Fold this protein.
Amino acid sequence: MAGINGPIRLTGFSGALDTDSLIKDLMRAERLPLDNILKQKQFTVWQREDYRSMNTALLNLRKAVSDLRLESNFESVKASSSNTNILEVISGGSNPSFSQISVKNLATSASIVGRGVAGSPTDTVTADGSVTITGASGSANIKITPGVSTMESIVKDINNSSKLTGVKASLDQTTGVLYLSSVTSGGSSKINITSTGTTNALADVFNLDPSKLSVTGEDAEFTVNGSDIIKSSSNSITINGAQVNLRGTGDVTINAVADRSAVTDKVKNFVEKYNEIVDLFSSASSTKKNRSYQPLTTEEKNSMTDKEIELWEKKAREGTLYRDSLLTDTLSSLRSALNLPLATSDPNQLKLLSQIGITVKSDYRENGKLELDENKLSDALNNRFDEVVQLFTKPSDTGTDTPENANKRRQELGFAERVYEAVNTQLAKFTKKIGSGSVEALDDSVLGKQLKELGTRESEWQRKLEDIETRYYKKFTAMEKALQKLNSQGSWLASQLG
């Protein structure tokens, strides 16, 4: 146990004993209880890591099934534009429709463009005076000082005041053209440059047209299906639920149609995530622990290569969740939620997932994984769409105050709602088992408490072993002193008899 932070000991005075090696061998036996604690601690850490992997898989399943819980998620619409140079569709919204759009005018920002000047942007200017720049959000004063101000510094001053004015400036270094523009668009955007002197210093420096020092922007103007003119301060607008960008003037149509393929993709994703859970949980709960492979101690690792350590630990961490009740209970809960028919008063309502092409694989080796008949699902979506929606999203007002009501509620809920509640219940159990944070000191979970207890036992044994090692050194030191004294007496006797 003696090491870098341990006591410095001087041994071997007698020359007859290798004290350090002897004590090291003795301590190897004394360390066995501590090694067992460290191995148990490492195995518990592996358990927690594997539980967290299971927890992540459950979260993925919850996300997949959440996309099937709300009716609005089934009303996906795909919209297209007949001319993307005039109008670009960003998202289809939720309203199937056909709209004829006539774009009369695009929304523009207020802007002033200089006529260009010669000279370097870093040269000082000769103009003198102050100007007030007024935009849609307010005004700011810009002072121009001859022999001090430069074109670059003036542009910087304008931009430093842009939060007040809503006006930004940029300078073309090559042509000397100044660009002033409002940060907003539409008829309310404006730029107004006024001077307190007889001349406008800003106009003088950048060669601005004196007749164009007060400008405003324009609103977008368009009609929908022959409506009155509609105005917008932005070219990004919503038309009949579809989010679009106006890009030019002219006539264009928007064709928004119900997109049933999006629902198919959501169902496929749910089946995929469910099957991942079945594979992961079944494999973890059925893999036995190999007792021949235990977590390695530091001393054991020191005698192995990195590759050997990697292969060993891969075998050693197998079976961390063998026959784990939390995993088997989760699988049982999910299977029950999917197998129970939907309770409904409508005799024509779909009641089972098998009616829309979602069935359990017949091969027992698949552990109850699902398979999807896309043709059957497509047929149900096209011919019994509202029933499919209810099959997944049907709500229930029944409470869970009694076991009877809880069972009734589960029967009344649509399959997506059912699975969502089942997953949430199991996630709460996982949180109780492994905690929800990364701060060990605040982890009050089952495994968190186990690790704290093992850490306490580890510290106690470290102290015990230090005491045991110290006691061994005292005994061997006394032995060495006795041997040294005996050797001295023997040498004296030999010299007397010599």
